[in-house]
Amino acid sequence: MKRFLLAISTLAVMASCDITVIEPRYDYREQMVGYYDMEEYSETFNDYTYYSVHITKDYSSNDRIYLKNFYGANISVYAYVDYTKITIPNQVVNGYEIEGVGTLQGSNLSLNYRVKDLYHYSATDFCETWGERD
Description:
Layout: H1 2-15, E1 34-42, E2 47-57, E3 64-70, E4 75-82, E5 85-93, E6 96-105, E7 108-117, E8 125-133
Antiparallel strand pairs: 1-2, 1-8, 2-3, 3-4, 4-5, 5-6, 6-7, 7-8
């Protein structure tokens, strides 16, 4: 009888224990952080431009990054990351209205976006840009 009570007590104690499994969370922005040498093709002006972009994480958000020297215009835009996809929401930065999308494959960054210069009222610039991480 004592064995039976001991077995029941042990089972009751074990059943009341909570086991928490903590799985590490992967930050997909980590694979994007760095400097990129960019080649930009303007469909609007049929012109190529070369410049460098620096991507950093926004530490106040778990899915936002900053692209510094975007468009080769020394401006910083923010974007959201979902795995390897990048979404640049509509935003106005230093007189430029910007919106676009992109992807990262390995160390290669590909962006498609539009830029409108609000100060000079020029045509909307539709750009395809490719870059490789340094």
